[in-house]
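Now for our specimen.

. . .
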Amino acid sequence: MFIVREGRILLIEKKRGHGAGKINGPGGKIDPGETSLEAAVRETQEELGITPLAPRKLGELWFAMSDVPDILCHVYRADAFEGEPVETAEAVPLWAALNDIPYDRMWVDDVMWLPLLIDDIAFRGRFVFEEESMLFHEIETGLVWEN
């Protein structure tokens, strides 16, 4: 879940689990009985203490990684939220200007699809990693997602 407003994007510095120490958007695993949207909202509430308003799906990211099982990420964007972002046991909130995103502290694929999300362009990305080295990628745009 990415919150974009007033020329900034709300990111997190992940404190634990896969990707700890990296900067990303809030999110996590889908619980049984949950939709991907419900999971994205819940994870944002748990990791930042805020509730995204009117989120919309903009992407899917498929990852094949050598050191973890394959991952499918549903990517959502919201332009507003309720509450105030706070640090939790899982994450530290970080606002970044849209022209100064800290890609050097993010996964290497983020620079390929995050600008699409910022520009409100729907996308699907496929990535193959060997540990943290990207071996393959492809991105398709012009998609329409149902929320």
The radius of gyration is 14 Å. The helical segments are 36-48, 110-118.
